[in-house]
Design brief:
- The chain is built from 6 helices and 8 strands, in the order βαββαβαβααβββα.
- The chain has about 190 residues and is an alpha/beta fold.
- A 6-stranded parallel beta sheet has the order 3-2-1-4-5-6, with helices on both faces. It has a two-stranded parallel ribbon with strand order 7-8.
- Helix 3 runs parallel beside helix 5.
- The longest helix is centred in the middle third of the chain and has 16 residues.
- It starts with a strand and ends in a 5-residue tail after the last helix.
- InterPro entries: NAD(P)-bd_dom (IPR016040), NAD(P)-bd_dom_sf (IPR036291), Polyketide_Oxido-like (IPR051606).
- Pfam families: NAD_binding_10 (PF13460).
- This is NAD-dependent epimerase/dehydratase family protein.
- GO terms for molecular function: biliverdin reductase [NAD(P)H] activity; riboflavin reductase (NADPH) activity.
Length: about 190
């Protein structure tokens, strides 16, 4: 399976690339600049996710997309993720790519009820207010598409090794933290799982 990773220069994106390579996928990364060293066999595609033609060119012959794009200033108003997703969805439709895995955030829509009270009432409306609004708009674009998609809404991301113990939250569960390594591993596993 050919997998395109967007946001591959970020902390979680780098781990997604590593796990995907480790599981035998043919990986391409779409980045603004090749500032990182990628493992042998990774195809590096330079471009701007806000440029529809660049995204369409990167989508050629891809079977699946893992989108790990994140804003740098979560408290500020931003439209990066919604604009990027509009281009990604259009390119996927044009290229015939069906499978889309996306990192959103706990606190978007109904996922807020899975967060601790202090996260829901203090962190989301203050520190995360800009990025939550952008991710909510991004999710709307995905939901309105006809793609085969999974949206992951992780709680607070931490550094550390993968434990292999990832839980999809049910109606009465609360999420506090997850390592980027566990999130990345889980996302890659969803390429061929529900």
């Amino acid at each position: 399976m050919k997998v395109l990773v967007l946001g591959a220069n970020g902390g979680t994106g780098r781990l997604v690339v590593s796990h995907a390579i480790g599981m035998g996928y043919e990986v391409s990364v779409f980045v603004r600049h090749a500032s990182l060293f990628y493992p042998a066999g990774v195809k590096v595609i330079i471009g701007d996710v806000l440029n529809p033609e660049n995204v369409l060119g990167a989508m050629h012959c891809q079977d699946a997309v893992i989108e790990c794009i994140g804003g740098n200033a979560p408290w500020m108003k931003q439209k990066l993720e919604r604009k990027a997703m509009k281009n990604i969805v259009a390119a996927m439709k044009a290229a015939g790519t069906r499978r889309l895995l996306v990192i959103s955030a706990m606190g978007v829509a109904e996922s807020a009820k899975h967060s601790p009270w202090w996260y829901r009432f203090f962190v989301v409306p203050t520190f995360l207010r800009g990025i939550i609004a952008d991710k909510k708009a991004m999710e709307r674009i995905i939901r309105e598409s006809t793609l085969d998609w999974i949206i992951a809404r992780p709680p607070i991301l931490t550094h550390g090794t993968a434990s292999g113990n990832v839980k999809v939250l049910g109606p009465k569960n609360k999420g506090h933290m997850i390592t980027r390594a566990d999130l990345a591993m889980w996302l890659v596993k969803q390429l061929e799982s529900e």
